[in-house]
Specification:
With 1046 residues, the chain is an alpha+beta fold. 30% of the residues lie in helices and 22% in strands. Strand 28 and strand 29 form a beta hairpin.
Length: 1046
């Protein structure tokens, strides 16, 4: 290899270089790969790579590195030099040929490895704002996420580099689509196709791609683990593809002066320097250093003499948010940047540095640009100044204020585990939650049940290695409107033909207009003499159950004019009829919702809102529009979020006498043929021409490639019987009958579910969106127990850190029984039995115990071991401890199968077994967090006092008590749990048994819901608005310590 060479470093565009040494002012360039270095010794170490002299932990690491340097070449058209990546080529062009625009530099002649191009497909995105590229697995990798990610990493990095070359800076995220399978309860096979999406990454240059891609993959693997853990029993069947979504990133850079909003200026907390250039960041940093309090400190002239004191070394002005870490490093500063929107301050960038000197900047914006201001007084800015003049200390990650630096340091132990978020705690006096949504008791008068059917159109690909992908094209639908009396308002609507989703939306919006007229018309009250007597003799409000006294009003049904009850005036206002019209699909989130979303963007006159679980899946979405002075909305909800099993099983569990709507629509017919889910040849129906066929296709046509199975002979005979009984003429009529029965069966199933909810809990479930939300509101209503919410953020984070999940593992992988009841019993060997144990009502058993409800306070950690062990199991006061525990070595063998006190741990490479290391032999390992039972000593371990007592009883040693959180506890949820348990015992149908089990289990997760994971999704149907949103930084929305109902 030639001797190292160096080129003069180009001057920075800002003109500020600082005082660098002669050696520091040069770039040392590798002649082999053209990578540049600031120090000569760095180049010398780097060159050992090319000679194989650099030490690698494993031989394959060096081999992979050399392969990376040798497999592709990117040629410079100006000087014919070759480079190993587009990033190195771009770097060379910027440095050596600045006159060449990067977009004109073409890739060299080397091609990607054979076959890769066949497995990559690129598509244009919505509103012309992004592109999607699909990476498909090979036969070797489609069964293994790790192998698949490792296989596509080089192509993925190369693709992002190409996008950077084409677009400049980009934003990207990845979505993994996979198929999982598990054995169903009836012995068959159940399959699902989940999507796992990564967070958005921003790339201004190619330098960070190598860090962001592994992090993205690691997050997807964590999501897969969470899916498997929550779903129980899922096994990966195959990886379908990885979708890379890339959008051009054009951040508004902070530049010249912007006038502060009046509310912000009135706080007198921010120095807004009136510069006309693009160096507002530079002037803010100088102003911080000078700490000038002159009345005209907004003038730039104060700071220009000190301009050279700020080092930028290659960072161009205006400085984008992503370049702040470089400015920090160059100037030995800790810089935090906050945003301001709708009178709220929120963190945009919080430094990871620990420098004592900290600069806080506020980034404000108008429609054209952004501007940095210097925050002079954080207390004034956040609006929490008190009469006391004592100094306050702030956590810049969550914007909470602390009186003492010691308390702040304690807080950071918890807060550093989370991404920056503006966290708002409830104010004292407003920190109680109880049942207040009295309007949930009001049955919604109109509800629509609907379903789509689709043709599965085969996609033809010329690529031989690409798996054939089918496109789902809606070909028909049916819907039925159910009125206040539980009967159909009009005959069921059925459509079959092209543009089915568009046709559906046009018709459903017409139905909305008709129903809106009924919902917004108020029939005056009509009181009978008996009604008047009941009103005058009423002593208690029928809503809140409190005494009426002089405050009483007549409540009546606005649809009929009928008197209902005597209420308080405030209760009557809360009990108003909601102007919502639910539209119910079974599996809306995973299927029908995707079809509707393709059409919903055309509706310019409607307000569209969503409650998302991910970017792709929505729990519910609504279309709202004002009708006179009322806003009336169509609320699309998913019955699967309440009844999470197939419609076929739900129909089986409902007794025949409950199918009133089906009977109403099929009078004088043999109902036994309709009281079961029909069968349909989904994959056979791939074109509208198939509807013209005049006979039922063969049994083979009902097979599914997704499940790998078909239908039984009995199912096929049933389909033939239905065809003949209804005298069907062709497959079009079969389709119509099938979708009609589906919708009517769904209507009967869900109407019975609504009746159960109203009968046992006095709530209409369609006022909510999910079973957990329904169960939580039902429990609050039945127990009538006010629950205290935290006002101390450290208490919240303390408890949050103690939530770890549950261990579910069989550590002994194989055991063979040997006893007289087995045919292969061997009397010469030891007798051995295997027993299956299961806990009945596992969740319910934990929820009937004493649970916290209020009185939270910190108490002294100066307690004795005897005191801890003496706390009664049924104490009215509960405690959560933070302790250090020692795990004595003499217990290791005894506890080896199931160690006590499991921990969330970052699993490092050296922690893996030799087998796992071998599997990862050719892959980059990214540490991940897992819940691990282990025999290590525990530091700062957070646990409930009953658990701690058990650990100590089993032999663990208490080393230290750090903190104790005390609270009042009692079995306040027991009434609700035991009610459901008793009702389940007395249930006469499988439908009711499942219902009461659901209402118990669903409330468990709601008690510890992590609302940090909620996402804010805006649906955009305007290209200009979409492009504008892409320009904005991504603010982290407020996190409120409230238990919300979905």
């Amino acid at each position: 290899i030639d001797n190292p060479v160096w080129d003069e470093a180009p001057s920075t565009s800002s003109g500020y270089r600082g005082s660098a040494s002669p050696e520091r002012s040069r770039h040392f360039v590798c002649p082999t790969c053209s990578k540049s270095f600031a120090w000569k010794k760095s180049l010398v170490m780097h060159m050992k790579i090319h000679t194989g002299e650099k030490s690698f932990q494993r031989k394959h690491c060096f081999a992979m590195h050399m392969q990376k340097h040798q497999q592709k070449k990117y040629d410079c058209r100006k000087c014919d030099r070759s480079f190993i990546s587009l990033h190195h080529l771009n770097q060379h062009v910027r440095t050596t040929h600045p006159e060449i625009k990067l977009t004109s530099v073409k890739r060299g002649t080397a091609s990607t490895p054979e076959g890769n191009s066949k497995r990559v497909r690129r598509e244009g995105g919505a509103l012309n704002t992004f592109t999607s590229t699909f990476f498909h697995p090979t036969e070797n990798s489609k069964k293994d996420f790790l192998l698949f990610f490792d296989e596509i990493t080089p192509q993925l990095k190369e693709k992002i580099e190409e996008e950077i070359q084409e677009k400049g800076a980009v934003k990207w995220y990845g979505v993994v689509k996979a198929v999982f399978k598990r054995e169903s309860e009836d012995g068959g096979e159940e399959r699902v196709t989940p999507y796992f999406r990564s967070n958005v990454q921003i790339e201004l240059v190619g330098d960070t791609i190598g860090d962001h891609v592994p992090v993205s993959f690691s997050k997807r693997l964590e999501a897969v683990d969470e899916f498997i853990r929550r779903g129980s029993g899922w096994i990966l069947d195959k990886v379908v593809h990885f979708e890379l979504c890339v959008a051009k990133y054009q951040p508004l850079r902070a530049s010249s002066y912007i006038i502060l909003p009046k509310k912000l200026a009135d706080k007198k907390a921010v120095l807004n320097i009136q510069n006309e250039d693009q160096k507002c960041l530079v002037w803010c940093l100088i102003a911080h250093k000078l700490n000038s309090l002159a009345h005209n400190s907004y003038r730039v002239s104060h700071y220009t003499p000190h301009e050279q004191e700020i080092k930028l070394d290659g960072v161009e002005c205006p400085v984008p948010l992503n370049k702040i870490p470089i400015v920090e490093r160059l100037n030995n500063l800790r810089i935090n940047v906050f945003g301001y929107e709708e009178n709220e301050v929120f963190p945009l960038y919080v430094s990871k540095r620990v420098d004592e000197e900290c600069v806080n900047l506020l980034l404000i914006a108008n429609e054209e640009t952004q501007h940095y201001c210097l925050i002079r007084n954080m207390s004034r800015l956040l609006g929490d100044l008190t009469k006391h003049k004592t100094k306050h200390h702030y956590c810049y990650r969550c914007l909470h204020r602390f009186a003492k630096v010691e308390i702040l340091k304690e807080h950071l132990q918890y807060c550093n585990d989370h991404s920056p978020q503006h966290i708002k705690m409830p104010a004292k006096g407003e920190n109680f939650i109880k049942f207040q949504n009295v309007h949930y008791q009001h049955p919604l008068p109109y509800i629509i049940y609907a379903d789509f059917e689709s043709l599965i159109v085969k996609e033809v690909h010329t690529s031989g290695n690409t798996e054939i992908i089918a496109r789902h094209e809606a070909c028909g639908y049916a819907y039925v409107i159910i009125g206040p009396d539980g009967r159909s308002v009009k005959p069921i609507a059925i459509y079959r033909g092209k543009n089915a989703v568009q046709h559906f939306m046009e018709n459903i919006l017409k139905e909305k207009e008709e129903l809106a007229a009924k919902l917004t018309s108020i029939v005056p009250i009509h009181m009978t003499p008996q009604d008047e007597l009941d009103f005058r003799s009423a002593t208690h409000c029928s809503i809140c159950k409190k005494a009426l006294k002089g405050d009483r009003v007549r409540d009546h049904d606005h649809q009929t004019g009928r008197y209902r009850a005597a209420l308080h005036s405030s209760c009557n206002l809360k009990f108003r009829l909601s102007k919502k019209i639910p539209v119910v699909f079974h599996n809306l989130k995973n299927y029908d919702g995707h079809l509707i979303m393709q059409e919903i963007g055309k509706l310019k006159d409607y307000e569209i809102s969503v409650v998302p679980t991910t970017m792709e899946k929505y729990v519910t979405f609504s279309l709202s529009k004002r009708y006179h002075k009322f806003k009336v909305s169509l609320n699309f909800i998913d019955s699967f979020q309440f009844l999470s099993t197939s419609l076929e099983k739900l129909v089986q569990n409902l007794t025949p006498d409950k199918f009133n709507i089906l009977n109403e629509n099929f009078p004088h017919h043999n109902m036994s043929l309709l009281l079961r889910k029909g069968v349909y040849p989904y994959e056979y129906m791939d074109s509208h021409q198939k509807f013209e066929e005049e006979r039922l296709p063969s049994i083979d046509s009902f097979e599914s490639t997704l499940t790998g199975s078909g239908i039984s002979d009995e199912d096929y005979r049933h389909a033939q019987t239905v065809w003949n009984y209804f005298n069907l003429k062709n497959m079009g009529e079969y389709h119509d009958l099938y979708v009609k029965c589906d919708v009517l069966q769904l209507a009967d199933v869900f109407e019975n579910f609504r009746k159960l909810c109203q009968h046992y809990y006095g709530l209409d479930c369609v006022n909510l969106f999910t079973a957990p939300g329904l169960a939580w509101q039902s429990s609050l209503k039945m127990t009538d127990q006010p629950l205290e919410l935290f006002t101390d953020i450290n208490m919240h984070m303390f408890v949050e850190k103690g939530i770890r999940g549950g261990i579910s593992v069989i550590t002994k992988r194989f055991s063979q029984a040997n006893n007289k009841y087995l045919p292969n019993f061997d009397a010469s060997k030891n007798i051995k039995h295997i027993i299956y144990l299961d806990c009945n009502n596992l969740y319910g058993a934990s929820m009937v115990e004493s649970l916290p409800y209020g009185g939270f306070e910190w108490i002294s950690a100066d307690v004795t071991l005897d005191w801890i062990q003496s706390i009664p199991q049924d104490s009215s006061e509960g405690y959560i401890f933070e302790v250090d525990l020692k795990y004595p070595e003499e217990l290791h063998d005894l506890h080896n199968d199931y160690p006590l006190a499991p921990e969330k741990m970052d699993i490092k490479f050296e922690d893996l077994s030799e087998f796992s290391k071998a599997v990862l032999n050719e892959m980059k390992y990214t540490p991940s967090t897992k819940l691990v039972p282990n025999l290590k000593d525990k530091k700062n371990y957070i646990t409930y006092y009953k658990n701690l007592q058990f650990y100590l009883k089993q032999g663990l040693k208490l080393e230290k008590v750090h903190k104790i959180l005390k609270f009042q506890q009692k079995p306040w949820l027991k009434k609700y749990i035991m009610f459901n348990t008793e009702q389940r015992k007395n249930s006469k149908s499988a439908f009711e048994k499942d219902f009461f089990k659901l209402m118990n289990n669903s409330v468990y997760g709601k008690t510890m819901e992590n609302i940090r994971n909620r996402v804010d999704v805006q649906l955009v149907n305007d290209e200009k608005k979409a492009q504008k949103l892409e320009l904005l930084p991504l603010p982290l929305k407020d996190l409120k310590s409230l238990i919300m109902s979905w």
